[in-house]
């Protein structure tokens, strides 16, 4: 008797649950549409939104790539495509909420409180977002450029790998990736070494006081004139920059392309040493200075 009563109670609970579920999903509302149909439409909207947004992203990338005039920077392209796709997903989410008859107005107070809390918690990220927009809009940096960033936390330098929504990524010549918040970038002093496509080399070398200065200058000028990587039409100079206690400091100054800056600079020490030895031009050493002091 008890087992039959339990069965009847279980059956009654299951029947009520199924009836409520059936009514919720299958009985049409005032608009003549049941909730199961709304869920199907919402899923269709999500799938369609995914396809449309993917296609729009493809079109935007293709448009930026084939646009006439200067090529759009990859960082700016990636940044704005991401922003546009995010906005489209937000619009799709509101459309799905409307189809599923979510009452967003009743949750306005809660949403406002959550928005304020998120705003306070994410104010740094929001600052990074708008700083990233400013970086790209003002064209302060571009992908592939070599820059130095100096702020209150120190300095970093490397090639601009990418500018994302919140962070800028630098790649050092040693293969390291440096991540810098965008709001720090806009507050920093940015030195761009590659924007002009060329760099000036300043190289100092000391010679003994009894050296024929004109001969030493001639040797250094010859090094500049025979190196094809030195830009011939740019200003080239060799001059006495300083009179030290035990040497005359000559400054070697010329221009080369950004790509050749370090190769040319690193070759100078060997070239100057060989040329000076060939012409019997003496470079004072610390040993000579110590002996002279005695």
Can you characterise this structure?
With 294 residues, the chain is α+β, with helices and mostly antiparallel strands. The chain folds into 3 domains: 2-120, Orthogonal Bundle (Helix Hairpins); 139-192, SH3 type barrels (Roll), CATH 2.30.30.60; 198-293, Alpha-Beta Plaits. Helix content is 54%, strand content 19%. It contains 9 helices and 8 strands. The chain has helices spanning 2-26, 35-66, 74-99, 108-121, 123-137, 182-187, 213-226, 261-278, 286-293; strands at residues 146-151, 154-163, 167-171, 177-181, 189-192, 198-207, 237-243, 248-257. Strands 4-3-2-1-5 form a 5-stranded antiparallel β-sheet. Strands 6-8-7 form a 3-stranded antiparallel β-sheet, covered by helices on one side. Helix 2 runs antiparallel to helix 3 (74-99) and helix 7 crosses helix 8. The longest helix has 32 residues, at 35-66. It is rod-shaped and about 115 Å long. It starts with a helix and ends with a helix. The model is unreliable at 66-72 and 289-294 (pLDDT under 50).
Q: Give the tally of structural domains.
A: 3
How many angstroms does the end-to-end distance come to?
Answer: 120 Å
What is the N-to-C order of secondary-structure elements (H for helix, E for strand)? Answer: HHHHHEEEEHEEHEEHH
Helix count equals: 9
CATH architecture of the largest domain: Orthogonal Bundle
Averaged pLDDT: 79
Task: List the strand order in the largest sheet.
Answer: 4-3-2-1-5
CATH-derived topology of the largest domain: Helix Hairpins
Low-confidence parts: 66-72, 289-294
Oligomer: single chain
Number of strands: 8
Proportion of helical residues? 40-55%
Question: What best-fitting shape do the alpha-carbon axes yield?
Answer: rod-shaped
Radius of gyration: 35 Å
Estimated share of beta-strand residues? 15-25%
- CATH domain class name of the largest domain: Mainly Alpha
